[in-house]
Amino acid sequence: MQPPPEAAPTGSHGPAQARSAWRDVPPRQVRRFAALALEEVPALAQDILREIRAEFPGLPVVLNDAGEPMALVGIRRALEGFVQQLASQEGRPRYHLEVFQEFGRGEGLHGRSLDSLQAIYRLGVRLAWRRLAEIGQQLEIPPPAMYELAESGFEYLDGLVDQSVRGYAEAAAREAGERLRLQRKLMELLLSERRAETTGGAVSGPSATPGAPFGNALGERAARVGWQLPERVAVGVLLRPAPEAVAPAVGAGVLLDMEAEQPRMVVPDPDAAGRPELLRRAMTGWSGAIGPPVPLADAAKSLRWAEAAVRLMERGLLPGGEVLHCTEHTEALVLLQPEELIEDLARRCLAPLDHCGPAHGRRLAETLLAWLETRGGAPEVAARLGVHPQTVRYRLRQIRELWGDEVDDPDRRFELELVLRARRLRGLLGRS
Fold first, then answer.
1. What is the pTM of this model?
2. DSSP 209
3. Which of 83, 289, 344, 431 could form a disulfide with 37 if both were Cys (CB 3.0 to 4.6 A apart)?
4. What is the bridge-based pairing of β-strands 264-268 and 232-239?
5. Residue-wise over 124-161: b if at least 16 C-beta within 10 A, else e?
6. 104: closest CA among 92, 116, 122, 94?
7. pLDDT at 200
8. d(Cα 55, Cα 27) in Å, to the nearest integer?
9. Which candidate, 237, 188, 240, places its Cα nearest to that of 214?
């Protein structure tokens, strides 16, 4: 709150400003007003606190180091500061308002809104004004000056509220940071491979009573962030659309760690009604993968599949630009993930094509895969490939010559289809 402004002289260079009725009050009268008001401050502060407690019986009593209620200290300082400011020509208060920041922090740390605190401030200002008005009447200060004083009092109130809002915001930020830290700790434990091995699957839901140390730690950490242990989870790995991307609004219950290079999330009960649609909307603009739903104790396994899917996305072997569900890309994950083993099997199974030219070898491989998938004759294979049946018959005779009786062995046919499907997923064969 600033003191009431002085009247500015009028002139040819600007419009006239309204005079200040309060500054027209003789200085001796102002000093007398301030002296009487300061004498009243201790008793007035007690009266205000008593009225506030009667109006707000649930108000917590917080004592300072000297054993004095912090609320009483705040009221007294606010009154003294306001009165001293009236008698001073300075533009700023000389006292400190940290106590009002503490009030705001207290509301934030206890999860309360600022509504009740602001109501308390307003009540205090009304009670203080009644006494100041009595002093003004006693000293015969003109009503216009007292009206200005009332306006200044409510401006002063705004300053106190600003201080409390600042403290409240600081507390909220600190609380949010602490919650994120605890949430990351929970996710680290939940996704730990060692935890899954140690608990042996004992942690399986909100009613479970895990006996292993890791199971107990998991329950404790979940309780600290208010996360109820679900029966099943799915773990997602995300790719940031931009370095400064804001965290997706995944909704309550979904654990999200944005600190990792590739953000991770744990989705409780992923098949619950409405959950898939909520995630789909929240993930707009993001890409990544969500692992298969698994029991809580196997969360690390879901994470492994999500990480594998993201690696394939980065290599262009799975579609990008969206958040995929691993359960919808099982074939690619199964066939492309053990790359070395599949390639070794492919070298052995497709060795007969080594003596064919690249283009001809590819056509024979596509024909063989279409025949294995359809189990039909030349017309069915031709329709799948979009070529003439006679062409298919010619290729099938060549395939029979290259592989011989192996194409009649069920195990060999399975291996051939496996490696040919893997090659098609990698884009080495055309899609039939």
1. 0.57
2. -
3. 83
4. antiparallel
5. bbebbbebbeebbeeeebeeebbebbeebbeebbebbb
6. 116
7. 45
8. 38
9. 188
